[in-house]
Amino acid sequence: MFEQLTQLVQQYGQEAVVKNNAIPNEQNEAVMNEASNSILDGLKNMVAQGNVSDLAGLIQGKSSVDSHNPIVQKLTEHLSANLGQKFGLSSDTAAGVSENMLPKVIGSLIGNAKDPNYKGFEVSDLVKAISGGNGNSSLMDAVSKYGGQFGLDQNADGKVDMSDAMAAVTKKGGIGGFLGKLFGK
């Protein structure tokens, strides 16, 4: 997941970092690397602190990925503080970089994870990365819980997992119908 995150930061960092005159050119790469690390660390910290319901809602697309989202706000604050501390950026510059880049990066990261046409990165990869590699984390449990409430528990075993995905593929609607239910489309 870190590779996908880094690519998105590089993509959206062009405007927020590279074209930003307040950031010296020799710091551009280091600032974008810090952004990638801060985003991943911030997500991991949220899981460690038990903030799984907001994250599950964000991953499932139940909440918008904008500056009003509490997850995005926390990540913005975390990244802004790190950029100010590590690179001596003013609070306005650090906040501007964070506010410009974060919603786009998080939105694209989640969008790519949910897109069945985007190969090599899935929601489970995102959940594992931010839960410390534990696919059975409280975050995955929350995703399963909410997925069960939306009728995704195909085999009625009380959890939403790969066997439910396989069952959905063989039923009417196939995988598209299953994913549509999971992500509210």
Structure in a nutshell:
This protein is an all-alpha fold.
Number of strands: 0
Structural class: mainly alpha
Main sheet overview: none
Overall geometry comes to: globular
Mean pLDDT: 75
Helix fraction, binned, reads 55-70%
| Spatial separation of the terminal alpha carbons | 24 Å
Instruction: Compute the CA-based radius of gyration.
Output: 18 Å
Query: How many helical stretches?
Result: 9
Contiguous runs where pLDDT drops below 50 for at least 5 residues = 146-152, 172-179
- Beta-strand portion reads under 5%
Order of helices and strands: HHHHHHHHH
Describe this structure in words.
The chain is an all-alpha fold and 185 residues long. The protein contains nine helices and no strands. It is globular, with a radius of gyration of 18 Å. The two termini are 24 Å apart. The model is unreliable at 146-152 and 172-179 (pLDDT under 50).
Task: Detail the topology: elements first, then pairings.
Elements: H1 2-18, H2 28-48, H3 52-60, H4 70-87, H5 91-114, H6 123-130, H7 138-149, H8 162-170, H9 174-182
Provide the descriptors you would attach to this structure in a database record.
single chain, 185 residues, mainly alpha, 9 helices
